[in-house]
Design brief:
The chain contains three helices and two strands, in the order ααββα. The protein has helices at 2-11, 38-46, 72-80, and strands at 51-53, 68-70. The protein has one domain (2-80). Helix content is 35%, strand content 7%.
């Protein structure tokens, strides 16, 4: 399994993004079921990410133009197939 994950990460372009402190975030940019997930998506927005890949179902109802929120399977289908 680890070899498959390593191969996937080597095949795609990604960046590590630092999440700003909560007191520095702008609130209300989007609604999400679990407020603990807000900083994660907020970080993707402020770094201008094109795609946000997550298996967390709390992101399913979030509607944003950018970043496009995809499950790992959707990402593979769209970009690695």
């Amino acid at each position: 399994m680890r070899a498959m994950v390593d191969a996937l990460l080597m095949a795609m372009h990604y960046e590590h993004v630092a999440t700003p402190p909560v007191n520095e975030m702008i609130t209300g940019l989007f609604e999400i079921r679990d407020p603990m997930d807000y900083p994660v998506l907020y970080s993707a927005i402020i770094c201008n990410a094109d795609v946000f890949v997550t298996g967390d179902r709390d992101f399913e109802d979030v509607r944003l133009e950018k970043p496009r929120i995809l499950s790992p399977a959707e990402y593979v289908r769209r970009y690695l197939a």
